[in-house]
Each structure stands twice: as C-alpha cells, then as structure tokens.
Amino acid sequence: MESSGTVKKLAEELQKLPGIGRKTAERLVFALLKSKNGMALSLSKALTDLYEKVKLCGICGGITETEPCAICASTRRDPEIICVVEQPLDIALLERTGTFNGTYHVLGGTLSPLDGIGPESLRIEQLINRLKEGKVREVIVATNPTTDGEATALYLAKALRPCGIKISRIARGVPVGSDLEYVDEITLIKSIEGRREI
Ligand SMILES: [Zn+2]
Questions:
Q1: Ligand 1 centroid to 91 CA: how many Å?
Q2: What is the pTM of this model?
C-alpha cells in the first residue's frame, strides 16, 4: 500500500493490538477509507468513549462505567464469595456461564518473578483489605492453570490463610497450560462447581 503519513500512523497503531499484523492493519485502514457511512468517525467516537468513560472498578478491578461496577453494587449478588481472576476479561467469561453469583476480584496478572512481577504488582493488598471487612466466607481462586497461575494460587492460599476463611481453587476441568479465554462454557461451569479447598 502506498501510504500517506496518516494512513501509516493508523496502521502502526492498529498493529499494536493483539492478533493484528501489518497486512491486517493495512486492510482495516483501507476498509475505513472506503466506507461511505462515516465508519472512521463512529469508530473514533467509540474509541474516545472507551478512553474517557470506561475505567476499572475501585472494589473489584473489573471494567466499568460506574463506580462501583454493577456486580459490586448489586444486592442480588452474594458478597460472601469472591472469585479471584487474573484479568477483567475473565469476569465477562465467567458471567457468560451464569453459574456464579458471588463477586469478583481482579489481580491484574499473575506472579512472574522472571518478568519482575511480584505480589506488590498485583491487587493482593486490596483483596486482603476486602477480606478484613469480615463479610467474606470463601475465596475461589480462578487464575489460569498455567505455571504462573498455579504459583499465584499457592501464594494466595498462603497469604490469605491468616484471614481464616475457606480458600478454594477451580477444578482441573480447565486444561493445564491454557487460558480461561479458550475454555468452553461447560468446562468453565464444571471447574467452578468442582472447586476444591486449598
Ligand atoms: Zn466491581
């Protein structure tokens, strides 16, 4: 593609997204240029809104436009059970199964000493503070069954033990080494139902 500065810049920005290579980026830019119904403008509006309106919930760390998020604010959710996940996206995946009625807590990743990610880089302190309020009776650790995810689950089990509450881990229905993102809903439901204490 013969690129103007603007076209090149947009293609470069798109390539920073996961799963988008140079060719796809150029194809997307071309589609936007070709569209006659202002697709570029509505996309730019949606992106501005995303930047300005969407934030992370102060309690659970999930994606929200309100503070707190709808799940944390809901009186129909069970505040006594907290499901700990790695990323905000994991909340959406678990919500889609419709089986979990507690609340969530996003860690923001997993422990990864080689990448310099220690406990202080994750939202563990905030989780302990939530537990200190005394309302929670169970924490379900739903980190991915990867090496880092398992190590994080073990670390959490140790760190939370003094709080004296039940700590469980999602069952092994989730294939080892995989991300929750790639697991089908039935497996995800089974993994929550079959959780075991750690
Ligand atoms: Zn929340």
A1: 10
A2: 0.78
Task: Say how many Å lie between the CA of residue 105 and the centre of ligand 1.
Answer: 8
**Distance (Å) from CA 148 to ligand 1 centroid:** 24
Taking the domains of the chain in order of start, what are their residue ranges? Answer: 5-53, 74-197
pLDDT band at 46 (very low <50, low <70, confident <90, very high): very high
Burial of 162 per CB tally in 10 Å (0-12, 13-18, 19+): exposed
Ligand 1: distance of its center to the CA of 46 in Å?
A: 23
Q: 109 in helix, strand or coil? A: coil
- Same fold flag, 5-53 and 74-197: no
Region 86-92: mean pLDDT is 95
What is the CATH topology of the domain spanning 74-197? Dna Topoisomerase Vi A Subunit; Chain: A, domain 2 (3.40.1360)
The domain 5-53 is placed in CATH, from the list 1.10.760.10, 3.40.50.1580, 1.20.120.430, 1.10.8.420, at 1.10.8.420
Give residue 110 CA to ligand 1 midpoint distance, Å. 19
Q: How many angstroms is it from 106 CA to the middle of ligand 1? A: 9
Distance (Å) from CA 103 to ligand 1 centroid: 8
What does the alpha-carbon distance between residue 81 and residue 33 come to, in Å, rounded to a whole number? 49
Q: What length does the chain have?
A: 198
For residues 132 and 157, the answer to whether their CB atoms sit within 8 Å is no
